[in-house]
Design goal:
The chain is mainly alpha-helical. It contains 1 helix and no strands. The longest helix is centred in the N-terminal third of the chain and has 26 residues. The chain is elongated.
Length: 53
């Protein structure tokens, strides 16, 4: 299951990078940087059984 989640995250990461790159190009954001840094965070909400209910 963990490998599946990792592959899913990496796939989404690649799609996000492509979309952000396209948006930067389309919006004409100027930068002298060779690479534009950004931070990706991910959440994976889950539940555990409540044995007291």
């Amino acid at each position: 299951m963990q490998q599946s989640l990792a592959r899913h995250f990496l796939s989404r990461n690649e799609k996000a990078l492509a979309a952000i790159s396209d948006l930067i190009e389309l919006n004409g954001i100027a930068s002298d940087l060779a690479d534009i840094p950004f931070h990706i965070t991910s959440e994976h909400p889950t539940k555990i059984p409540n044995n007291q209910s």
